[in-house]
Amino acid sequence: MQMEKTVVLYPGLAVSHFVPMMRLAGALIEHGYAVSVALIDPTAPDATFSAVVASTAASMPSVRFHTLPLVEDPPTLIPGAQFIVSYFDLVHRYNDRLHDFLGSFTRVHAVVVDSMSATAFGVTKRLGIPGYLLFTSSAASLAAFAQLPYVLAEGGGTSFKELGDTPVELFGLPPIPASHLFGELLEDPESDTYKSTMAVLSRIPDSGDGILVNTFESLEARAVAALGDPRCLPAGRVMPPVYCLGPFLGGIGEPKERHDCLAWLDVQPDRSVVLLCFGSTGVANHSEEQLREIAAGLENSGHRFLWVVRAPHGDDPDLDALLPDGFLNRTGGRGLVVKQWAPQAEVLRHSATGAFVTHCGWNSVLEGVTAGVPMLCWPLHSEQKMNRLHMVGEMGVAMEMVGWQQGLVQAGEVERKVRLVMESEEGGKLGARVAAHKEAAAAAWDDGGSSRAAFARFLSDVEGRQAPARTGEGA
Q1: pLDDT, tens digit, for every residue of 23-52?
Q2: How many alpha carbons fall within 13 Å on the CB side of residue 233?
Q3: Residue 214 has what DSSP assignment?
Q4: Coil, strand or helix: which one is 87?
Q5: 364-413: per-residue pLDDT in tens?
Q6: Residues 276, 423: one domain?
Q7: How many domains does the chain have?
Q8: Pairwise CA distance, residues 64 & 37, whole Å
Q9: Residue 162: which CATH number?
Q10: Rounded CA separation 300/264 (Å)
Q11: What span, in angstroms and rounded, lies between the C-alpha atoms of 124 and 152?
Q12: Are 338 and 363 in a shared domain?
C-alpha cells in the first residue's frame, strides 16, 4: 500500500501569519497531501488568535491539528518593543517539542515553517526533513529584509533611526525612507529588540530549502526578479529558491451565518460603498480624536460607507461616546458602523463595495487586489509603511491618506480622498489598474499561470528531496 504524503505546517502565533498557512494547507490537500499542523499553545498570544485557531480546526476536518506539549515555565509574550525578543524566545523553547512531534511520523515529506519561527530549521536539518519558509508578506518586503542587514555595514549610516526620512537604497526596489522600515529596526542598535530582529533577517538566505511567498509574479515583477538575481545579496550569500504561490485566498474558519453587514450591502448600488477596516487584531487602534476626524470626513464626503470601529484601548466600543453627537442618526441612511469585526474578504468581493481604506497589511492588500477594489492607504505598524510605497508606486492600486505619519489624518483629508477615489477621473484610472491586477491574480492560478507553475515546482522539489522512510508510529 502506498504511504500517504505528509506535510507538516508550523504556523506563527498571529492571525495574519496563521491564515495564509491554513490556506496553503487547503492547496496541499487538493494536491493529495496529508497535512498536519503543529501549534505552540494557541492561547499564548490572545483570545482572538485562539478563537481563529479553534474555528479553523472545526472547519477543516481533513487537517490534523496538534498542540505541542507545554514547555516548563513558558516565557510570556511581552507587548511593545520587547515583543519580538519574547516571541523568538518562546519559539526557540519549543524546538525540542517540535523535534519529538516530527520524529513520531514514519515519514514527513516537508515541513513549512512560518517566517517568524525560522529557528525551527535547526530541527528539520537534524531530522533530515526538507524545510521551507512561508513568508506571509510581499516579495518586495522579502527582498528588503534580506538586504537590510548589510546596508549599514556598507556605509549607510550608524543606525536606521538616525537616518530619519533618508532613503535606503536596495537592489531591485525603489528607495525606502528609513522611517518606513518596521519599528524593530528603528530601535537603538544596542537593544535586544534590534539585535534579535537583525539576527533573524540575516538568516533569511539560510531559510531551509526554499521560500514560499504569498504573492504572484506580475503584481511584483521587479521584486520577484531581484530575488532571483545574485546581486540581491553580498558575494558569498545566495537566496534559496523562491516560489511565488499567491494569492492565498478563500475563507477558513468563517461563521456559517451570514453577517448582517452583507444584507445591508445587498441593497446598496454597485460600487457605491467605501469600506474602512484596519486589520484583524486591533494591534494599533485609532484614538478617540482620530475616530471623530474619520466620522466627520465620511459625513462630509456624502458617500456611502461601511466602517469597522474598535475602541482606542481594545474594549467593546461605545459608539455614541466615541463618535460625534448625532453622527449615527445623520448618516444612518447611507452608512453602517460595525463594532470590532466584519468579514472583510466577503465585503470586498461584494458588488456594492467601491473603495477600501486599509492599514496595508499584506493579506488585506491581496484581498483588495483580487476583489478589484481601489484602496486608500493608512499604514499603522509592521511592514505596512513599506507596503504603502509599493501600493501607491509600482503596483498603482492605491492612493495615500496624508497625515498618518504625523499621527492624525484630518477630516478634510478623509473627505478629499474618498471623493477623489469615488468621483474623479484619477479614481477611475486607479480602479482600472486594480481591475487589471484582479484578472492577473486569477490567471496566476489558471492552467499555465505563474503561481500554479511555481506550486508544481515546489511539489516537484519536495518529491526530489525525499530520504528513505524512518521507523515510527505515525501521527
Answers
A1: 999 999 999 999 999 999 888 877 888 988
A2: 20
A3: S
A4: helix
A5: 999 999 999 999 999 998 899 999 999 999 999 999 999 999 999 999 99
A6: yes
A7: 2
A8: 6
A9: 3.40.50.2000
A10: 21
A11: 32
A12: yes
